[in-house]
Amino acid sequence: MDYFLFKIINNFAASSLFTRSLAIFAATYAIFLLPAGVLFLGKQWKRALATSIVGAGITYGINALIGLLYFRARPFVDHPVIQLIHQDADKSFPSDHTAIAFAIATVLFFFNKRIGYCAWSIAFLIGAGRIAVGVHYPLDVIAGMFIGSVVGYCTYRFFVSRRI
Prior knowledge:
Vanadium-containing Chloroperoxidase, domain 1; mainly alpha
Protein backbone atom coordinates (compact mmCIF):
# COMPACT_ATOMS: atom_id res chain seq x y z
CA MET A 1 0.00 0.00 0.00
CA ASP A 2 2.85 2.38 0.88
CA TYR A 3 4.55 1.83 -2.47
CA PHE A 4 1.21 2.01 -4.30
CA LEU A 5 0.47 5.47 -2.85
CA PHE A 6 4.06 6.51 -3.50
CA LYS A 7 3.74 5.63 -7.19
CA ILE A 8 0.50 7.62 -7.57
CA ILE A 9 2.01 10.73 -6.02
CA ASN A 10 5.36 10.37 -7.77
CA ASN A 11 3.80 9.81 -11.19
CA PHE A 12 1.42 12.76 -10.72
CA ALA A 13 4.33 15.04 -9.77
CA ALA A 14 6.21 14.10 -12.91
CA SER A 15 3.19 14.61 -15.18
CA SER A 16 3.77 18.29 -16.03
CA LEU A 17 6.31 21.06 -15.73
CA PHE A 18 4.11 22.82 -13.16
CA THR A 19 3.74 19.80 -10.87
CA ARG A 20 7.44 18.95 -11.19
CA SER A 21 8.41 22.52 -10.30
CA LEU A 22 5.97 22.65 -7.39
CA ALA A 23 7.20 19.31 -6.04
CA ILE A 24 10.84 20.36 -6.27
CA PHE A 25 10.13 23.68 -4.56
CA ALA A 26 8.11 22.02 -1.79
CA ALA A 27 10.65 19.26 -1.19
CA THR A 28 13.76 21.42 -1.34
CA TYR A 29 13.09 25.08 -0.59
CA ALA A 30 9.77 25.46 1.26
CA ILE A 31 11.36 24.49 4.56
CA PHE A 32 13.15 27.86 4.55
CA LEU A 33 9.76 29.61 4.72
CA LEU A 34 8.96 28.21 8.16
CA PRO A 35 11.52 30.09 10.26
CA ALA A 36 10.24 33.29 8.64
CA GLY A 37 6.98 32.70 10.51
CA VAL A 38 8.61 33.89 13.72
CA LEU A 39 9.01 37.34 12.20
CA PHE A 40 5.24 37.79 12.38
CA LEU A 41 4.99 37.03 16.10
CA GLY A 42 5.80 40.48 17.42
CA LYS A 43 7.35 40.47 20.90
CA GLN A 44 7.36 36.68 21.09
CA TRP A 45 9.63 36.14 18.11
CA LYS A 46 12.77 35.44 20.16
CA ARG A 47 11.07 32.81 22.31
CA ALA A 48 9.45 31.24 19.29
CA LEU A 49 12.74 31.15 17.39
CA ALA A 50 14.60 29.58 20.32
CA THR A 51 11.83 27.04 20.88
CA SER A 52 11.75 26.19 17.17
CA ILE A 53 15.51 25.68 17.01
CA VAL A 54 15.51 23.43 20.07
CA GLY A 55 12.51 21.48 18.78
CA ALA A 56 14.08 21.02 15.35
CA GLY A 57 17.34 19.85 16.93
CA ILE A 58 15.61 17.33 19.19
CA THR A 59 13.52 16.10 16.27
CA TYR A 60 16.61 15.59 14.14
CA GLY A 61 18.29 13.68 16.98
CA ILE A 62 15.29 11.40 17.45
CA ASN A 63 15.16 10.72 13.71
CA ALA A 64 18.88 9.91 13.67
CA LEU A 65 18.41 7.46 16.53
CA ILE A 66 15.48 5.80 14.76
CA GLY A 67 17.61 5.60 11.61
CA LEU A 68 20.29 3.73 13.56
CA LEU A 69 17.78 1.26 14.98
CA TYR A 70 15.73 0.74 11.82
CA PHE A 71 17.02 1.26 8.31
CA ARG A 72 14.64 1.63 5.41
CA ALA A 73 16.09 2.28 1.97
CA ARG A 74 14.80 5.18 -0.07
CA PRO A 75 12.24 4.37 -2.78
CA PHE A 76 14.69 4.93 -5.64
CA VAL A 77 17.02 2.29 -4.20
CA ASP A 78 14.45 -0.51 -4.27
CA HIS A 79 12.12 0.53 -7.11
CA PRO A 80 12.14 2.25 -10.48
CA VAL A 81 10.91 5.77 -9.63
CA ILE A 82 10.93 9.20 -11.18
CA GLN A 83 13.51 10.94 -9.03
CA LEU A 84 13.20 14.71 -9.44
CA ILE A 85 15.99 15.77 -7.05
CA HIS A 86 19.33 14.30 -6.09
CA GLN A 87 19.36 12.54 -2.75
CA ASP A 88 21.94 10.28 -1.18
CA ALA A 89 20.88 6.68 -0.74
CA ASP A 90 20.79 6.98 3.05
CA LYS A 91 17.89 6.17 5.39
CA SER A 92 14.36 6.99 4.34
CA PHE A 93 12.44 6.45 7.59
CA PRO A 94 11.39 8.80 9.07
CA SER A 95 11.53 11.89 6.86
CA ASP A 96 13.85 14.46 8.47
CA HIS A 97 12.53 17.34 6.36
CA THR A 98 8.94 16.58 7.27
CA ALA A 99 9.66 16.01 10.95
CA ILE A 100 11.62 19.24 11.32
CA ALA A 101 8.97 21.16 9.37
CA PHE A 102 6.21 19.85 11.63
CA ALA A 103 8.23 20.55 14.78
CA ILE A 104 8.66 24.19 13.74
CA ALA A 105 5.05 24.50 12.54
CA THR A 106 3.71 23.05 15.79
CA VAL A 107 5.76 25.48 17.87
CA LEU A 108 4.49 28.36 15.73
CA PHE A 109 0.92 27.12 16.13
CA PHE A 110 1.12 27.33 19.90
CA PHE A 111 2.54 30.84 19.75
CA ASN A 112 -0.05 32.02 17.20
CA LYS A 113 -2.86 29.89 15.75
CA ARG A 114 -3.17 31.74 12.43
CA ILE A 115 0.56 31.59 11.71
CA GLY A 116 0.58 27.99 12.90
CA TYR A 117 -2.11 26.92 10.46
CA CYS A 118 -0.13 28.50 7.62
CA ALA A 119 3.03 26.81 8.87
CA TRP A 120 1.29 23.43 9.09
CA SER A 121 0.09 23.88 5.50
CA ILE A 122 3.65 24.52 4.38
CA ALA A 123 4.89 21.56 6.44
CA PHE A 124 2.29 19.32 4.82
CA LEU A 125 3.40 20.50 1.36
CA ILE A 126 7.00 19.73 2.31
CA GLY A 127 6.04 16.18 3.25
CA ALA A 128 4.00 15.69 0.08
CA GLY A 129 6.85 17.17 -1.93
CA ARG A 130 9.32 14.68 -0.45
CA ILE A 131 7.10 11.86 -1.71
CA ALA A 132 6.45 13.54 -5.04
CA VAL A 133 10.14 13.98 -5.90
CA GLY A 134 10.79 10.31 -5.23
CA VAL A 135 12.85 10.33 -2.02
CA HIS A 136 10.33 9.18 0.63
CA TYR A 137 7.47 6.77 1.02
CA PRO A 138 4.18 8.07 2.48
CA LEU A 139 4.81 6.18 5.74
CA ASP A 140 8.16 7.99 6.13
CA VAL A 141 6.33 11.30 5.87
CA ILE A 142 3.51 10.28 8.22
CA ALA A 143 6.06 9.20 10.83
CA GLY A 144 7.88 12.52 10.38
CA MET A 145 4.61 14.42 10.83
CA PHE A 146 3.91 12.57 14.06
CA ILE A 147 7.42 12.86 15.52
CA GLY A 148 7.75 16.53 14.61
CA SER A 149 4.34 17.44 15.99
CA VAL A 150 4.91 15.62 19.29
CA VAL A 151 8.38 17.09 19.76
CA GLY A 152 7.19 20.57 18.79
CA TYR A 153 4.38 20.37 21.35
CA CYS A 154 6.64 19.00 24.11
CA THR A 155 9.32 21.59 23.42
CA TYR A 156 6.76 24.39 23.52
CA ARG A 157 5.30 23.10 26.79
CA PHE A 158 8.80 22.83 28.31
CA PHE A 159 9.73 26.40 27.35
CA VAL A 160 6.39 27.86 28.45
CA SER A 161 6.32 26.03 31.80
CA ARG A 162 9.78 27.41 32.63
CA ARG A 163 9.11 30.90 31.23
CA ILE A 164 12.21 30.61 29.09
